[in-house]
Every structure is written in structure tokens, then in C-alpha cells.
Description:
Elements: E1 10-14, E2 26-31, E3 36-41, E4 48-51, E5 57-62, E6 69-74, E7 77-82, E8 89-92, E9 98-106, E10 109-116, E11 121-126, E12 133-136, E13 145-148, E14 153-158, E15 161-166, E16 173-176, E17 181-186, E18 194-199, E19 204-209, E20 216-219, E21 225-231, E22 236-241, E23 246-251, E24 258-261, E25 267-273, E26 290-293, E27 296-303, E28 307-314, E29 320-329, E30 332-339, E31 346-354, E32 357-365
Parallel strand pairs: 26-32
Antiparallel strand pairs: 1-27, 2-3, 2-25, 3-4, 5-6, 6-7, 7-8, 9-10, 10-11, 11-12, 13-14, 14-15, 15-16, 17-18, 18-19, 19-20, 21-22, 22-23, 23-24, 27-30, 28-29, 28-31, 31-32
Amino acid sequence: MKNFTKTALLIVLLIAFYSGETQNSKIFWTDAQTGKIQSSNMDGTDVQDIVTGATDPRFISMNAEEKNTFYFTMDEKIMRVKEDGSNLETVITGLSYPMGIVFNDDDGILKMYWADVVDSTIYRANKDGSNVEEVVTSLDQPYAVTFDMLANKMYWTEQNALKRANQNGDSIETVIGWGGPRGVAVNALLGDRKIYWTDIENHNIKRTDIDWMSPEEIVTGLDYPTDIKIDYFDEKLYWAGYGDGKIMKANFDGTEVEEVVTGLGSPQGLFLLPDSTNGIRVEEAGKKTWKLYVKSTTLNYTLTGRSLVKLIVYDGRGISLSELVNGYQNPGEHQVKWDANGYPTGIYFYRLQIDGQVARGKMLNFN
């Protein structure tokens, strides 16, 4: 963050979660062999059991409207549970073989999407399990499903293919038509618009540009890698090694591969939960400035003299969403809140101008 030499000496970014609750950064995963859902710190320490005795738990996800509640697929069901293991309950039953699960905003309504391998279909429903709909049918064993938060495109893996479509399932395109894609993640950062996926046939992780150009292997020699997730704050990829019982991570380009958790059974699904208490990255000018928020966020700044202030929030395409401040303000501390209700998960930007001096930053709306 830059300092202002004229009137504003300091800009302080604070986190304002709607629930007021905080938690440390965590990795959550399902283990199909042991029947557990477990968690650890991002460095793999403090492994904890959340659910035990589950029948073939597969993928796991979370939404911003239910703090500390996880949804996961298992057996013929979708279940949900609190982070501490309490309130385990069935959301939907009578399914065939649900796999990947993810949440996405659908015209202002939060929807749960999942892939069913046996039905060859991607479904969606309300978060309480009501209003189940078919989104895409006649697929070839769909496995994982995710969303591109900037373009609002749905991506999924099938047998020997990686595909995408609009969130309602139309305009299907084949991104990759070879190999054995399993997990898929799309980087929502404007500077690194890449698609990442695990490949169980070739035992590696690949990536390609968002326009499908120049696919490349970035991590090789893996043992049945399944789910893959992006840590935006530390700019790392995390993935589950179903065959070797490991959670691993690497840089976006595949360098600096590290084991995070070892000695597991068959980890399959992953979810990364950033830390709401220290999810701020405030660094020197020219580096990244991050702010994590859910539902609302507060920006605090201090003026040393009467100043002309302008504060605007933009979406990932650079379109102005909200002009929060535009006028003169007196010296002292100022607090401005942006209500993110109605805005989907994604990358947003703020521009704070004080008497001609400008500071910019990125905000990750976490869903």
C-alpha cells in the first residue's frame, strides 16, 4: 500500500465479516478410504477429524451464506456439517453417484451444482436441496465441476475431456479432448487467467490459457491426482493425491512442489478456507494488495487535512459498480462500508483517490 505525501499518511484495510466470526486458514479434504472429512493448517499441521464413518466421501464445498458449514458428496447423498463436526445432516438423498460439488450465484439466488457420474448429468438445486434441475445431460461420466468467477462459465471434467458452458448449460465447448482430466480449477486473477486440471492417465497437472492456447504440463510423476484448488493469497496450487495419500502444493507454474499432509488413505476432494483475521496482504507499491470479505467489507483511511476523496469499487472487467465517496472530507479517521450483497463470488477492485494521489487494490469476494 502506498503512503500519501500530501494529506493522507495512512490507509488501513480491515476485515468485516457479516457473522463476526473468524477462523485460521485451513485445508479441508475428504478421504474415501478412511471415511473421514479432515482439516489441517495450510502447512499441514494440526490434522483434525471433522466427520468419521462416512461412506465414500468424495467432494467438499462451502458457500458464503452459511458460515462454517460444509457440503459434501457421499454414497447417494449430499450432506452438510459444521466445521466442528456438529449438525451433520442430509440435504439430498436418492442420487446415483454424486461427485464434484460447487456453489454459484444464479441471478441473485445461490445454487448448489454437482456432477453425477452414473446419471451422466450435472444438476443444480437450492442450498436446502429443493428445486433440483438438470443443467447438462448426456455427458460421459462427469466428475468435477467448478466456475470461472470472472466469465461466469461452468467447467467440468468428463472421461477424456474437459468442457465448459454457460451456467445454464448451453453453449458447450470442449477445452481439452484427451487424457484423463479429474479435478479442475480456473484462476480468476486477471494477470493469470489459466485453467488448471489434474490428469490421472498421465499422472500430472496441466494448465492452459483461458482461450485454450498452449496447454502444458507443470507437475509430473503424480499418483492419481484428483481435486485441485487455488490459494489466491499465497499464489499456490493444492491438490489431492488419491493414490499416494498426500495433499501437495506448488507454485502456479508448477515449481516448488511440496508435501503438505502425508499418510492419508485416499484423499479425494479439497476445499481451502482462507483466514478472515489475517487474510489481508498489504505490501509495498507495485505488489499485491488483497482484502478478503464476505457480504460486506470496510475500508478505513486517515486524513491529515481537509481533502477531496473519491472511492470507487469495480468488477473484474473494470466496470464501475459503486461510487462510495466523492467529495471533500475533514481531517481524521474515516470508515466506508461496501455492501457486497447481490454480487457474485469473484475478484473486485477499489480505487481510492485523495487530492490527486491514488491507491488501488484487489478484493476477493469469497463464496
